[in-house]
Amino acid sequence: MVAVRKDLCFLLPDPRIFCPTIVYLLLVCRVNLLVCMTEIRLKKGEPVERALRRLKKKLDREHTLQQFRMRRRFEKPSARKRRKMKAARFSAMLKARYAED
Fold first, then answer.
1. What pTM was computed for the model?
2. Measured between alpha carbons, how far is residue 22 from residues 17, 18, 31, 89, 101 in Å?
């Protein structure tokens, strides 16, 4: 069974043989054929909604979705350098603003 969203592809096994104790998320990025597997095990009697919330939090902590969205398209090395310089300038500005005198 495959359910497709705009930015993710959730691949689950056949529902007849699906084991309800494990939920898998497989992210496939076509640009560089990156495959990341994040696994969440359902606790006994745990609702699926809570397990999905735990999965989302785990993906946020691992920065999986950010990496996926960043690598969706090719970024020129000059654009990458410009983006990193802009982020460094911003963090330096914040550091200078809140530095103790």
1. 0.49
2. 12, 9, 28, 43, 53
